[in-house]
Amino acid sequence: MAKKKNNPNEMSFLDHLEELRWHLIRSTVAVVLIGLVAFLMKDFIFDTVIFGPKKADFPTYEIFCKLSKWLGLSEAFCGDGPAFRVQSRVMAGQFSAHIWTSIWAGFILGFPYILYEMWKFISPGLYEKERRSSKGFIFIASFLFFLGVLFGYYVVAPLSINFLGSYTVSDEVFNDIDLGSYISTVRASVIACGLIFELPIIIFFLTKIGLVTPEILKKYRKIALVIVLIISAIITPPDVASQIIVAVPVLILYQISIYISKFVVKRDAKKERK
Protein backbone atom coordinates (compact mmCIF):
# COMPACT_ATOMS: atom_id res chain seq x y z
CA MET A 1 0.00 0.00 0.00
CA ALA A 2 1.32 3.44 -0.87
CA LYS A 3 2.70 5.47 1.99
CA LYS A 4 1.10 8.86 2.53
CA LYS A 5 3.33 11.87 2.70
CA ASN A 6 3.01 14.53 5.38
CA ASN A 7 1.04 16.74 3.01
CA PRO A 8 -1.71 14.87 1.09
CA ASN A 9 -1.37 17.42 -1.72
CA GLU A 10 2.17 16.18 -2.35
CA MET A 11 1.01 12.66 -3.22
CA SER A 12 1.76 11.77 -6.81
CA PHE A 13 -0.84 10.61 -9.31
CA LEU A 14 0.38 7.01 -8.91
CA ASP A 15 0.08 7.32 -5.12
CA HIS A 16 -3.54 8.37 -5.53
CA LEU A 17 -4.19 5.45 -7.86
CA GLU A 18 -2.64 3.10 -5.31
CA GLU A 19 -4.85 4.54 -2.59
CA LEU A 20 -7.92 4.18 -4.82
CA ARG A 21 -6.96 0.58 -5.60
CA TRP A 22 -6.89 -0.38 -1.94
CA HIS A 23 -10.20 1.34 -1.24
CA LEU A 24 -11.75 -0.61 -4.12
CA ILE A 25 -10.18 -3.84 -2.89
CA ARG A 26 -11.55 -3.38 0.63
CA SER A 27 -14.99 -2.53 -0.77
CA THR A 28 -14.93 -5.62 -2.96
CA VAL A 29 -13.90 -7.82 -0.04
CA ALA A 30 -16.77 -6.45 2.05
CA VAL A 31 -19.26 -7.16 -0.76
CA VAL A 32 -17.92 -10.70 -1.18
CA LEU A 33 -18.04 -11.45 2.56
CA ILE A 34 -21.60 -10.17 2.92
CA GLY A 35 -22.50 -12.01 -0.29
CA LEU A 36 -21.09 -15.22 1.22
CA VAL A 37 -23.43 -14.84 4.20
CA ALA A 38 -26.32 -14.24 1.78
CA PHE A 39 -25.24 -17.33 -0.20
CA LEU A 40 -25.56 -19.46 2.93
CA MET A 41 -29.01 -17.98 3.65
CA LYS A 42 -30.44 -19.28 0.38
CA ASP A 43 -33.91 -20.18 1.68
CA PHE A 44 -34.52 -16.78 3.24
CA ILE A 45 -33.05 -14.80 0.33
CA PHE A 46 -35.08 -16.59 -2.35
CA ASP A 47 -38.24 -17.93 -0.71
CA THR A 48 -38.88 -14.90 1.50
CA VAL A 49 -37.20 -11.95 -0.22
CA ILE A 50 -36.89 -12.62 -3.97
CA PHE A 51 -40.17 -14.51 -4.41
CA GLY A 52 -42.04 -12.46 -1.81
CA PRO A 53 -43.59 -10.06 -4.39
CA LYS A 54 -44.91 -13.09 -6.30
CA LYS A 55 -47.07 -14.30 -3.41
CA ALA A 56 -50.67 -13.22 -2.90
CA ASP A 57 -50.10 -12.48 0.81
CA PHE A 58 -47.34 -9.95 0.10
CA PRO A 59 -48.10 -6.82 2.23
CA THR A 60 -48.25 -4.50 -0.78
CA TYR A 61 -51.02 -6.48 -2.45
CA GLU A 62 -53.06 -6.54 0.73
CA ILE A 63 -52.69 -2.78 1.21
CA PHE A 64 -53.45 -1.96 -2.43
CA CYS A 65 -56.43 -4.34 -2.39
CA LYS A 66 -57.96 -2.57 0.62
CA LEU A 67 -57.14 0.84 -0.87
CA SER A 68 -58.68 -0.01 -4.26
CA LYS A 69 -61.85 -1.31 -2.58
CA TRP A 70 -62.08 1.83 -0.45
CA LEU A 71 -61.67 4.08 -3.52
CA GLY A 72 -63.97 1.93 -5.65
CA LEU A 73 -61.25 1.24 -8.22
CA SER A 74 -60.17 -1.92 -10.01
CA GLU A 75 -59.46 -4.82 -7.67
CA ALA A 76 -56.53 -6.11 -9.72
CA PHE A 77 -54.45 -6.59 -6.56
CA CYS A 78 -57.13 -8.71 -4.88
CA GLY A 79 -56.75 -12.36 -5.75
CA ASP A 80 -54.33 -15.25 -5.78
CA GLY A 81 -51.33 -13.18 -6.85
CA PRO A 82 -49.66 -12.97 -10.28
CA ALA A 83 -50.59 -15.96 -12.44
CA PHE A 84 -47.23 -17.18 -13.69
CA ARG A 85 -44.61 -19.79 -12.94
CA VAL A 86 -40.88 -19.21 -12.63
CA GLN A 87 -38.69 -21.67 -14.50
CA SER A 88 -35.01 -22.27 -15.18
CA ARG A 89 -34.19 -23.34 -18.75
CA VAL A 90 -30.42 -23.39 -18.41
CA MET A 91 -28.41 -26.21 -16.82
CA ALA A 92 -26.54 -23.89 -14.46
CA GLY A 93 -29.35 -21.31 -14.30
CA GLN A 94 -30.30 -21.78 -10.66
CA PHE A 95 -26.71 -21.98 -9.43
CA SER A 96 -25.75 -18.89 -11.42
CA ALA A 97 -28.79 -17.02 -10.08
CA HIS A 98 -27.81 -18.06 -6.55
CA ILE A 99 -24.28 -16.66 -6.94
CA TRP A 100 -25.22 -13.37 -8.61
CA THR A 101 -28.13 -12.71 -6.26
CA SER A 102 -25.77 -13.19 -3.32
CA ILE A 103 -23.29 -10.72 -4.84
CA TRP A 104 -26.00 -8.10 -5.41
CA ALA A 105 -27.24 -8.67 -1.85
CA GLY A 106 -23.67 -8.04 -0.70
CA PHE A 107 -23.59 -4.77 -2.67
CA ILE A 108 -26.93 -3.54 -1.27
CA LEU A 109 -26.20 -4.46 2.35
CA GLY A 110 -22.59 -3.31 2.09
CA PHE A 111 -23.49 0.05 0.53
CA PRO A 112 -22.71 2.06 3.71
CA TYR A 113 -19.22 0.55 3.86
CA ILE A 114 -18.65 1.27 0.16
CA LEU A 115 -19.61 4.90 0.85
CA TYR A 116 -17.23 4.90 3.81
CA GLU A 117 -14.33 3.77 1.62
CA MET A 118 -15.22 6.38 -1.00
CA TRP A 119 -15.34 9.04 1.70
CA LYS A 120 -11.94 8.01 3.07
CA PHE A 121 -10.49 8.46 -0.41
CA ILE A 122 -12.13 11.85 -1.07
CA SER A 123 -12.00 13.49 2.37
CA PRO A 124 -8.19 14.18 2.48
CA GLY A 125 -8.71 16.58 -0.44
CA LEU A 126 -11.33 18.62 1.44
CA TYR A 127 -10.83 21.52 3.81
CA GLU A 128 -11.31 20.89 7.51
CA LYS A 129 -14.54 22.94 7.54
CA GLU A 130 -15.88 20.93 4.59
CA ARG A 131 -15.10 17.66 6.36
CA ARG A 132 -16.87 18.82 9.51
CA SER A 133 -19.94 20.00 7.60
CA SER A 134 -20.14 16.66 5.75
CA LYS A 135 -19.92 14.40 8.80
CA GLY A 136 -23.39 13.02 8.26
CA PHE A 137 -22.79 12.21 4.60
CA ILE A 138 -22.48 8.43 5.03
CA PHE A 139 -25.52 8.17 7.31
CA ILE A 140 -27.78 10.37 5.16
CA ALA A 141 -26.68 8.78 1.86
CA SER A 142 -27.15 5.28 3.29
CA PHE A 143 -30.55 6.19 4.73
CA LEU A 144 -31.75 7.56 1.38
CA PHE A 145 -30.39 4.51 -0.47
CA PHE A 146 -32.13 2.02 1.83
CA LEU A 147 -35.31 4.10 1.72
CA GLY A 148 -35.19 3.85 -2.07
CA VAL A 149 -34.49 0.11 -1.88
CA LEU A 150 -37.54 -0.41 0.33
CA PHE A 151 -39.66 1.72 -2.01
CA GLY A 152 -38.46 -0.28 -5.00
CA TYR A 153 -39.08 -3.61 -3.26
CA TYR A 154 -42.47 -2.87 -1.73
CA VAL A 155 -43.92 -0.61 -4.43
CA VAL A 156 -42.20 -0.73 -7.83
CA ALA A 157 -41.37 -4.46 -7.93
CA PRO A 158 -44.89 -5.65 -6.94
CA LEU A 159 -46.51 -3.26 -9.45
CA SER A 160 -44.28 -4.52 -12.24
CA ILE A 161 -44.54 -8.20 -11.30
CA ASN A 162 -48.32 -8.12 -10.84
CA PHE A 163 -48.92 -6.43 -14.20
CA LEU A 164 -46.26 -8.08 -16.39
CA GLY A 165 -46.65 -11.51 -14.80
CA SER A 166 -50.43 -11.52 -15.27
CA TYR A 167 -50.55 -9.89 -18.71
CA THR A 168 -51.61 -12.16 -21.56
CA VAL A 169 -52.24 -11.67 -25.27
CA SER A 170 -54.19 -14.91 -25.58
CA ASP A 171 -55.50 -17.74 -23.44
CA GLU A 172 -53.33 -20.01 -25.55
CA VAL A 173 -50.18 -18.53 -24.01
CA PHE A 174 -49.17 -19.31 -20.45
CA ASN A 175 -46.62 -17.15 -18.65
CA ASP A 176 -43.57 -19.24 -17.79
CA ILE A 177 -41.09 -16.59 -16.67
CA ASP A 178 -37.39 -17.39 -16.79
CA LEU A 179 -35.67 -17.24 -13.40
CA GLY A 180 -33.07 -14.72 -14.62
CA SER A 181 -35.75 -12.44 -16.07
CA TYR A 182 -37.76 -12.48 -12.85
CA ILE A 183 -34.74 -11.75 -10.64
CA SER A 184 -33.54 -8.96 -12.95
CA THR A 185 -36.97 -7.28 -12.65
CA VAL A 186 -36.78 -7.32 -8.85
CA ARG A 187 -33.11 -6.29 -8.84
CA ALA A 188 -33.59 -3.42 -11.32
CA SER A 189 -36.58 -2.07 -9.36
CA VAL A 190 -34.69 -2.15 -6.06
CA ILE A 191 -31.31 -0.77 -7.17
CA ALA A 192 -32.74 1.84 -9.57
CA CYS A 193 -34.95 3.28 -6.81
CA GLY A 194 -32.06 3.14 -4.34
CA LEU A 195 -29.89 5.23 -6.66
CA ILE A 196 -32.73 7.61 -7.63
CA PHE A 197 -33.30 8.39 -3.95
CA GLU A 198 -29.71 9.66 -3.80
CA LEU A 199 -30.84 12.73 -5.78
CA PRO A 200 -30.61 15.18 -2.81
CA ILE A 201 -27.02 14.06 -2.12
CA ILE A 202 -26.08 14.46 -5.79
CA ILE A 203 -27.64 17.94 -5.92
CA PHE A 204 -25.79 18.90 -2.72
CA PHE A 205 -22.38 18.13 -4.23
CA LEU A 206 -23.24 19.60 -7.65
CA THR A 207 -24.25 22.83 -5.88
CA LYS A 208 -21.04 22.79 -3.84
CA ILE A 209 -18.90 22.70 -6.99
CA GLY A 210 -21.05 25.30 -8.74
CA LEU A 211 -22.61 23.17 -11.48
CA VAL A 212 -26.15 23.54 -10.13
CA THR A 213 -28.05 26.44 -8.55
CA PRO A 214 -31.60 26.72 -7.12
CA GLU A 215 -32.52 28.93 -10.07
CA ILE A 216 -31.49 26.25 -12.57
CA LEU A 217 -33.47 23.59 -10.70
CA LYS A 218 -36.56 25.82 -10.66
CA LYS A 219 -36.15 26.80 -14.31
CA TYR A 220 -36.03 23.19 -15.48
CA ARG A 221 -38.64 21.87 -13.03
CA LYS A 222 -41.15 21.17 -15.83
CA ILE A 223 -38.53 19.31 -17.85
CA ALA A 224 -37.62 17.33 -14.72
CA LEU A 225 -41.32 16.48 -14.29
CA VAL A 226 -41.46 15.07 -17.82
CA ILE A 227 -38.26 13.07 -17.27
CA VAL A 228 -39.61 11.65 -14.00
CA LEU A 229 -42.86 10.62 -15.71
CA ILE A 230 -40.88 8.94 -18.51
CA ILE A 231 -38.74 7.05 -15.98
CA SER A 232 -41.88 6.07 -14.08
CA ALA A 233 -43.45 4.78 -17.28
CA ILE A 234 -40.34 2.68 -17.99
CA ILE A 235 -40.00 1.02 -14.59
CA THR A 236 -43.72 0.58 -13.86
CA PRO A 237 -46.73 -0.93 -15.67
CA PRO A 238 -48.37 1.33 -18.28
CA ASP A 239 -51.23 2.53 -16.11
CA VAL A 240 -51.64 6.02 -14.70
CA ALA A 241 -52.07 4.98 -11.06
CA SER A 242 -48.78 3.06 -10.93
CA GLN A 243 -46.89 5.88 -12.64
CA ILE A 244 -48.24 8.44 -10.18
CA ILE A 245 -47.34 6.21 -7.20
CA VAL A 246 -43.72 6.10 -8.42
CA ALA A 247 -43.50 9.69 -9.69
CA VAL A 248 -44.75 11.45 -6.53
CA PRO A 249 -41.83 10.43 -4.23
CA VAL A 250 -39.29 11.37 -6.91
CA LEU A 251 -40.89 14.78 -7.39
CA ILE A 252 -40.83 15.29 -3.62
CA LEU A 253 -37.11 14.44 -3.65
CA TYR A 254 -36.62 16.97 -6.46
CA GLN A 255 -38.32 19.69 -4.42
CA ILE A 256 -36.21 18.77 -1.39
CA SER A 257 -33.14 19.03 -3.62
CA ILE A 258 -34.11 22.63 -4.48
CA TYR A 259 -34.23 23.51 -0.77
CA ILE A 260 -30.89 21.79 -0.22
CA SER A 261 -29.37 23.76 -3.10
CA LYS A 262 -30.73 27.00 -1.60
CA PHE A 263 -29.25 26.11 1.77
CA VAL A 264 -25.82 25.41 0.28
CA VAL A 265 -25.79 28.66 -1.72
CA LYS A 266 -26.88 30.77 1.29
CA ARG A 267 -24.32 29.12 3.57
CA ASP A 268 -21.49 29.63 1.09
CA ALA A 269 -22.51 33.26 0.55
CA LYS A 270 -22.56 33.81 4.29
CA LYS A 271 -19.06 32.36 4.61
CA GLU A 272 -17.79 34.67 1.84
CA ARG A 273 -19.24 37.73 3.60
CA LYS A 274 -17.48 36.75 6.82
From TrEMBL:
Location in the cell reads: Cell membrane; Membrane
Xref: InterPro entries: TatC (IPR002033)
Membrane topology term? Multi-pass membrane protein
Q: Which GO terms describe its biological process?
A: intracellular protein transmembrane transport; protein transport by the Tat complex
- Where mainly found? membrane
Question: Which keywords label this protein?
Answer: Cell membrane, Membrane, Protein transport, Translocation, Transmembrane, Transmembrane helix, Transport
Q: What does this protein do?
A: Part of the twin-arginine translocation (Tat) system that transports large folded proteins containing a characteristic twin-arginine motif in their signal peptide across membranes.
Query: What is the name of the protein in this document?
Result: Sec-independent protein translocase protein TatC
What species was this sequence derived from? Answer: Zeaxanthinibacter enoshimensis
**This protein's encoding gene:** tatC
